[in-house]
Structures are given as C-alpha cells and as structure tokens.
Amino acid sequence: MTAVPQPIPSTAPSGGTLLLTLMKLRTFIALFAVLIVFSILAPNFMSTANLILMAKHVALNAFLAIGMTFVIVTGGIDLSVGSIVGLCSMVAGGLLMNGLALPIGYTVWFSVPETVLVTLAIGILVGVVNGLLITRLNVAPFIATLGTLYVARGAALLMSEGRTFPNLAGTEAHANQGFDVLGGGRFLDLPYAVWALVVVALAAAYLARSTPLGRHIFAVGGNERAAGLSGIRVNRVKMFVYMFSGFCAAIVGLIIASELMASHPATGETFELNAIAAAVLGGTSMSGGRGTVGGTVIGAFVIGILGDGLVMMGVSSFWQTVIKGLVIIAAVVVDQAQRKLQQRVALLQVARQS
Q1: To 5 degrees, how large is the angle CA 163–CA 169–CA 170?
Q2: What is the sign of the dihedral through the CA atoms of 234, 236, 237 and 242?
C-alpha cells in the first residue's frame, strides 16, 4: 500500500508572523497609545515640565522593575521590594537624623556618601536573606519574599515606632548635609534619578546580553535542571538576582527620602505590584527564561504615564487601581498567546521546509 503524503497546512505563516510581530511590539504600541490619548484628553500633558516630572516618577518604578525582571527571568518573584524601599528610606533617615547610637554611649554620625553606601548594603542584605531562604532552605520564592515583605516593613516601623523622620537636611557639625541633591538635583535639566536610571539600565542590559552571568540567568529560567547539569551554579545565580533586586529597591528608597527630605515607614507600599506590571508588560515571561531590560523600561514608562495621565484627568485612585490590574491581566494573556503563536509559526515553518 502506497503511503499518501500528508498535505502541508495551507495556512501561510505570514499572517501569524505579522500578528506575532505586533505582539512583540505591544509595549511600544501601548506607550504610543497612552501618549496620544493623554495628550488629547489631558491639558498640558506634553509640556516639558510635566514630561520631566513623569520621567522622574517612571525612574522610581523602572529601578524596581529592572531588578524584578532578573528575578522573574530565573522563574522567581520578589514581593519584598516595596518593603525594602521603606526600610532603606528609614535607614537613611535614621542615620542622617539620629546617627548610630553605640552601647558604650557614643553616637556615630555618617556623611551623606557613607549613608548611601550603608543603605545600599542594607538593600543587598535583604536580597541575601531572600536568596538564602530560596536556595538553602528551599522555600518557594513567593512565600520567602512574602515573609521578608512583612519583616522589612516591621523593621521600618520599629526604627521610629511608626513615626516619620521629618528633617534630613543634616547639620554642619555632623558633616552630613547635602542629602537633598540625590532626589532634587539636576544635570542638563534632567533629575539625577533619571541619569541614575540610564546608568543602571545600560549596565543591566549589558550584563543580560553580553556576559556569562546574563546567559546563566536566562538558562536557569529556561530550564533550571538542565542549567545545573551543564555546570551552571544555579544557587549563585539566584542569589545574585535577589541581591540585585534589593540593591535596586535601596536606590529607590534613597531617592524618595532625598526628594521628600523625610522618611516614612509606609514608603514603598504596593510598589512591588507596579514593578511586576512593568516587567510583564515589557515582555518578561512569568514562567521564566524570557525578558529584556529595554522592554521593562518601556513597560515602566507605560505604567507611569498611565498613572500620571489618569491623575491629570481627575480619575479616582480606586479606578486607577482597577485599570492597573486589568493591564497586568492583559499583559499576561497576551504573553501566553504570544508563546502559543510562536510555537504554531515554528511548526508551520518546519512543515514547509520538510
């Protein structure tokens, strides 16, 4: 009996390829869409002053989202970043306002650069705790970072018994003046926070695309077992991404405290949700193994512009929360559809070549 060859599917992959391209460009499309809509509906939305202000707001979320991207790419999640922001803000405020009281009755005062370094170290330390819980004690990332979320927030509250550190101007006697420059200073009319974001984003993109560590991060997210068998030190990679996430959160805590010249223990509440939304909207797959720093930054711009535009239009904060939730859901749905379409297009191409 002669075998009859199966016909190749008549559906041309060109249509699927076009749709796939649009899905990959969804973050750019969303960014242009919100810019056009709010420039029409919100007065003064495209003014230079408002664009600079929005860029500063976006920078805060983008820092967290970049760190979150590396974590999600490895197949994890970091729910503690918002609490790390609050804790680091309080650490900076406490060191500048009260110094560090030693048991021997002596108080150590830190200069602004020393305060910044100590605060960054605290953020990294919380990341180390997250990494150890996940890699050494095998606690699920969701549970581990949920626990540190509460611990870090509680520690921030304990530092001042729930009160604010209201004046971080420092004193000449303690040589700790000038903290306001970090959050309020400008270079070429752009806030230092935006320039800091450019540096961190470029460094993170280089790490992800051009270093062995970056390739290991994606390998762990793609297939952790295969990565381990190939010689990649999976636990070290996971430790790094959580430490980097804590570092990014510490930067945000410093910028907010510097901008307000005050520290409050509730700083950073729900920031982790915006960071996750920006990462996912930027193309980072929640199943791990896929994501880009550039896409995440653009996703942060979409979330930030969406929030600021809704405020300028007078939309209720309750509806803003609803809209952000819908954006997250839509991003995840599109991501799943993109993966399925990629598989289908790949199969069609293989069938045509065979």
Answers
A1: 95
A2: positive
